[in-house]
Amino acid sequence: MLYLASQSPRRRQLLEQLGLSFAVLDVDVPEQREPGEAAADYVNRVAREKAGAGLLQVAAVPGAVVLGADTEVVLDGDVFGKPADAAAAVQMLQRLQGRSHRVISTVWLVSAGREEHESSESEVRFAPMDEAAIAAYVASGEPYGRAGAYAIQGLAAAHIAHLSGSFTGVMGLPLYETSQLLRRFGLR
Question: Could you give the 3-state DSSP secondary structure of residue 126?
């Protein structure tokens, strides 16, 4: 049985695109970057901790396989998590507008006797945005609950000048990499 260790509606929707049945687990993993921790190491660690926390919840289920994922926006070495409020969203978007940044997404599959992971790294370039455009986007409510304060699949798409990499990875679950992991676990 496959379990998704995430309450993200986007991850659920993306995993459903693969045509698999799965159950959702609610895990609470602190998303706190350690001092000196490289951005990719941070994303990898958090994704693994989510999968591990999920596996603890279903350890008694024979054949349980848990998927954990994390996605973060990285600019100038800074990791942009989810904005705490409108001011944080504005600040993130001001820094991102007119520039390119990386989006790192890592997926872990873990079971009682096995664990593997895959990562996806994409480059996204925002078009320049004036203060009115940023304010309107923040007022839409879309930036909340999203790394880097934007949803590439939503209203922010009008401001994305270029994407190199995985569209679904930027959304929060890189489907190619996820599909490869599931195949290696015999779930596809």
Answer: strand
